[in-house]
Amino acid sequence: MNRLTRRRFLVGSGVLGAGALAAGATAVTLPQLMDVAQESPLADGAGVLVVITLYGGNDGLNTVVPAGDSAYQDARPELAYQPDEVLDIGNGLGLSPGLAGLKGLWDQQKLAIVPGAGYPKPDHSHFRSMSIWQTASPETSVRTGWLGRWLDATGGDPLGAVSVEPVLPPLFAGANTAAATLPVRGLKLPRGKLVEAVRALGSAQPGEDPQQARVAKSLTDLMRAGDVLSAATGERGGEQDSDDEERDKGASAGGNGALGAQLDVVANLVEAGVPSRAYSVSLGGFDTHADERATQQRLLTELDGALTPFVQRMAGTDRGKQVTVLVYSEFGRRVRANGSDGTDHGTAGPMFVMGEQVQGGMIGAQPSLTDLDDGDLKHDTDFRDVYATLLDRVLGSDPGQVLGGHQGRADALFRV
Amino acid sequence: MTPVDERTATRRLLDRLSFGPAPGELDRRATAGFAATLDELLAPAPAAALPDLGPPAEKPKKKKKKDGNAEKDPGAAKEAKELRARQEATAVSWWLDRMVAEPSATERLTWFWHGHFATSEQKVRSPVLMLRQNDTLRRLGSGSFTELANAMLVDPAMLVWLDGRKNTVKAPNENLSREFMELFALGVGNYTENDVREAARALTGWTVDREQGSAALDPSRQDTGTKTVLGVTAAHDARSFVDAVLAQPASARFVAGRLWARLVSADAPPPDVLDRLTAAFGPGRDIHALVRALAAEPAFVDSASTLVKQPVEWAAGLMRALGIRPSALDAEAAKSLSGGLRGMGQVPLRPPSVGGWPSGPAWLSTSAELARLRLAELLAGKADLNGLKGSSEQGRVEAVREVLGVGSWTERTRNALASVAGDPASLMAAAVCSPEYVVSG
ipTM value of the model? Predict the structure, then answer.
């Protein structure tokens, strides 16, 4: 990419995910990204990481289900799946009936499951635990996300990572760089004198109050985004407003819908050779304190229905074959059901890693249902082990720098 | 620290304790002065007459299938959904009217508490319950935080939103007890996991009657045993749980900090300021006394204490300045108004999560600015701007500034606005997108 093009994107903040973040995001448009792909496409063979965040705390035990375990049946009689209901993956475990597509990927050995991922001294707050997963810093509160630090360490290019979510997720905020954000819906500016006046309002005014300067900057970003409405980003955006009763039951912890539309955008960008190495998308609604079974199965079906075609599509092109997908949530849920046919906030849960480069199979052990910590699962694998291997094997970076010297690895995730 | 002049300080009061000045209001208030304006804003507001939403949508009956299992009737479900949508639109429009028309701090505090005890129709699925909660926030939001917290803990919409109605002695549900301590009354890090579990037991037994719009305690579902919450061992119920939480020194500081962030500054208050604020808040947790203490802080009138207006604050303030009543908009414009608020990321009665809405620069995304521009065009087009037509083009730029209560334009903005001064509607639309108006200076 030439310097001028690059500099276009290095300008300040369009969206800021949370007040505590260090750096703001740059808003980009699809045509801008396509231009970059023309000028300096992603190098052949360069790995791409797609991170899917499940907001609300996905119930791991009803995702990777120990259906044959009597302790599981006893702890949640109303919620439990029977062995003949789940999709058998061996060792007494089965996938939720909502995950039929992922079962297919499992059978093809393209899906690795880390059943007991967590971290020491687990926190049961959505907001704290999600922050821990996204900053990869369980011990101390930090203002940078793990992939934000990766962006910082690899030259500070905001196009290195793209968020297909309306607000920047903390995992993409670095100290000096934040990922670019691409709205799923396109942007179409009105025309005429008014827009020219608004463009003029966006110019910098020396000595202006910092908040006002941010407003001016966002107006400039809007003008730069231009009069673009892309079919690729616009068609399915409406799903975000859908009124879905099952989904809404677990909605009190935030997150997005329309995962399929988000992944379509990512697939287009990857296939076009956009030089971004990391993407973030999300699905919300997993806070299933009540009436969990139908709600969660419905959400897992949505995940499966969006993810399976994405992975299959990626397998069909050389660029797509370099894509690895990570799926995680901020925590699993309590082993015992809570009497509202739901579950309260828990601890360890499964991570999914999938793609053409992945060595399918189980990484680590399913947490014990009898050796509990105050009613909660004990984690088997530190989630940072997975991050470390993804940084090394997908992004080609030194994990030590990003993960504060964390030593663990989960190298069995990838084919040798 | 540089204090702003008294006129600007008075405008700040209107921006932050109300929804900005109506036409002519700033002149009048500035003559009365900062102290008198504060008194007037905090004077008791007349009771609000709630709109009649009609009966709640009936839960669609399930049809029996041949195999004996129940099946949803899609026609009835659609009807109920449409009724809820109409009721929600009526409730939101009514509330926006209140924000635009009611000059006291009451509506602004109601708005603040809605973001604090953030509850969404997305899961509650009853505008009747949402409006009832809104009324409670309005009635109690200026008095004692203790009473407000007690009311919210057993509020019907809240009991649905955080599953309090499913919390029983047989198996407690922790959603409400956790979020109450983390987000409503104490702050993360000031309680243990055991406190969450024990508190959940204290909150057992509450049920919601959707038809009546009410909550009730069912003793057969209540855990009457002994619980230890925050070091206090008793047969706790909801009220004694609130007492135990609010007795923690961290509680008053947490609540004061939340109000500070929305009404004063995005920079956290230093400890000595928090000491003064909590002293004013007092053992009775007097919300008005706390608001007075916030307004009395030097930081309140510091020129650096600027705040980005939240989208609803921006839109309500704009309609107030332009004399537009949301409920009087035609159907198409009303739809554009709600679409505009959605596009900017803030729809009343639908906060994104129990954590409420973000603050500050999070609102300034590219797509949100586009939605702002479109809504500005719409509302400027609906306003009576004949008063501007008599002025010269240069005079119009200053006249718009007066209407909006902005202290001064920067040279950048003056020049930008001059380029559209020939058309009053475009001038107004551009002016309300200016950094000087979008930020409460």
Answer: 0.88
